[in-house]
Amino acid sequence: MAGLLAINATEPDVPGLAALALLLELDLTPKPGLVDRANNGSHQDMDHALLLTSITAITPWLTVFANIGFEHAHHPAAEQLRLLRPAGIACEQAMFTATSGVNTHKGGIFSLGLLCFAAGRLQGQGRRVSADALCRQVSEICRGLVARELVNRKTCCTAGEQQFRDYGLTGARGEVESGFATVRNRVLPFWHLEQGERQLQHALLRLMASNPDSNLVSRGGEAGLRYVQRYAAMLLATGWDNAALHQMDQALMARRLSPGGSADLLAVAWVLAALA
Ligand SMILES: CC(C)(COP(=O)(O)OP(=O)(O)OC[C@H]1O[C@@H](n2cnc3c(N)ncnc32)[C@H](O[C@H]2O[C@H](COP(=O)(O)OP(=O)(O)OP(=O)(O)O)[C@@H](O)[C@H]2O)[C@@H]1O)[C@@H](O)C(=O)NCCC(=O)NCCS
Ligand SMILES: Nc1ncnc2[nH]cnc12
């Protein structure tokens, strides 16, 4: 399967960009509530080494997702998620095996996996792989996902499913069905206002200020989500530096709040910014 994706030097290597984005997100420091080079954030069950192990396990699958998209490029978009899901679940299993059962990147696999799949699909259709084209493709592939998987659901076991029922929040599913609208509208237009680590920290603050992160809700309820959104918005309004981010890190750790969904979308934002 690995040889399927024609090595087209003019087309970007989205799986490679996605793997790099996961590493850059992990190493960004300080990163309020999240695992970074300095501490484990609000997590008892994961650290820098475990997340690195998780990224190593996930990385080969990113190319698999792109190859599946390439192989089925001429099948209707509505059929694609069904084709992709088994590989996505297999990748989740590889992550859980590598982490001894800790959920490190379930959301990251979902969002970045769809981006890689969409890149392969565009390449198979002979179309240019741009940030806009990728987001439109992901939205097309995921059309109806929220209605199919969250509305009128009888059983509900995951955080995302619970929160749709309790608060109407659509989580990762809503974000991909919108074609990463939070990233496109709240982050990318401001990407070049900062450089280096500040560019990623600025993007993360913008995500935390607006992303309805299901991890924050599952850990701290709607009050927890609002607390982080308001705190991030205040820093964006008044200005921030590493000392302010370190203080926010301490505040989130004291409340056991972790914006894991925003960490995933930060990696998505970096990939899309690299292609814009
Ligand atoms: C489609 C699914 C992936 C949906 O799963 P679920 O029903 O659980 O839905 P969500 O809760 O909405 O999202 C799951 C993860 O996505 C991240 N996330 C949360 N909010 C958003 C958002 N608004 N936009 C985008 N992404 C979002 C988040 O993942 C990150 O956090 C996790 C680590 O944090 P932690 O708090 O430690 O999480 P837990 O361990 O669960 O809590 P504790 O026990 O520690 O307290 C980590 O996953 C990060 O990535 C959400 O957790 C799924 O149902 C599915 O179908 N999967 C199959 C795969 C597939 O279909 N793939 C296709 C493409 S390859
Ligand atoms: N750096 C990080 N810390 C905690 N959870 C995460 N999920 C994705 N990246 C993460």
Automatic annotation (TrEMBL):
Enzyme class per UniProt: transferase
Pfam families xrefs: CitG
UniProt EC number: 2.4.2.52
Catalytic activity: 3'-dephospho-CoA + ATP = 2'-(5''-triphospho-alpha-D-ribosyl)-3'-dephospho-CoA + adenine
InterPro entries per the UniProt record, alphabetical: CitG, TriPribosyl-deP-CoA_syn_CitG
Gene Ontology MF term list: ATP binding; glycosyltransferase activity; triphosphoribosyl-dephospho-CoA synthase activity
Family matches, as HAMAP family: CitG
Family (UniProt): Belongs to the CitG/MdcB family.
Protein name: Probable 2-(5''-triphosphoribosyl)-3'-dephosphocoenzyme-A synthase
The species this protein was found in: Pantoea phytobeneficialis
